[in-house]
Protein 1
Amino acid sequence: MFRRSIPFIINSICLFFVFIVHLVFPSLLNNYTLNTALSLQVLYTKMLPNNVFYHQLMPEFARRPLTSWLIETVHAIFGLSYSIAFIVVTFGFLYLTSACIYALARGYGYTKRDACWSMVVFYACLSILFAFFASIWA
């Protein structure tokens, strides 16, 4: 029974680690301030709602209507602030994407251990690990 839940545990631990990285170091989630106390009070409530509206208005983000719609729906149904709804939806998508990577790896014949490593490598990618940090223009 425990062996079957190992991929879910690894996925959850990696997702939690990414969340903590974004909570501690200056990122979009904490208004680019250093948060060494690990306080959830630092979750920024002004910039994140603006990002939701950017997703609806700006053409480069308007191509992702599912994210905007889900954030609006989570906000409306559960009464969460836009900031928390944004975090729940985006990190929920990360969790589901990692689960899909595990399923694909298993579908291609990888062992459970190797499929779990696929999830860890996914979370270690720079575009995932630093998803909400300030943009790097190259």
Protein 2
Amino acid sequence: MVDVTVIIGNVGLQLFILLLLAFSSYMAHSRKMKIHCSLMGAALFMQLLAIVFVMYPSFSAFSGMQISSQLLVELWVHHIAGILVMLLVIYINLAVKGSVHFLGEPYRLMRPVVLLWFLVLLGGLHIYISLYPALS
């Protein structure tokens, strides 16, 4: 079973990442692109650490639990969408830096990807509340 302290810490980290995304968006609208890129890089790094050290072990622990089929579908959608977000953020970053060729304009993907990231974060919070009702 997953330690509740780890869960609460991860929820706090996810909320901090959400604030980073909001502030990063503000910096992009203010045309402070270096700050925007740095904040997005920090958010990506923190998210990847959370995935490796908290979310993956948590997901592995669910394999022995009895959970509803609806929650299982929600878990899979959350994980697949989260992986998609991480891959797209990395791809956009590499395209903006000129490291990979991008089909079209990478900037057009930024808003949909940050919206999807936000939805994945909300979905993760819902999953935690569903699995651990004592947190709500």
Protein 3
Amino acid sequence: MLVIRMNEIALAELIDQQLRRVRTFGHPDVVGIDGIYLEFDAVQISVFVNADEDSLEWRRGSVFPNYPEQIEKEASFWSKFLNQQVIWIWEMQNQTGCRDALQMLFTSAKNEHLIVQLLAMSSTMLVFDLREVRSDDN
């Protein structure tokens, strides 16, 4: 059974949406990413680390009013995901039951699969670009 916390977005709302804009945020005194704002066609969400639990949370809109935006170091990473459509999404839970990752599968105009994973670890967010290593076409 899916339980949705207050202000939490049902992740199914992201399916078939194209990613239009990404902004990353972090505390000025700490290295790393504290949160990511993702703007889709009709939905905007913030994904952020709950440092007390080393878990990820997501909410509608932006929840980073007091954090400086980290534009330059993340911009090139996200460029391949922009204007691509989400076709699948996973909410991931670790062995201790902590909801600590979110993974999205995008499809590109070239019909390539692009996967991004957001993972909470040590009170910060790690962002991974996952690659397909074998397909029926190879």
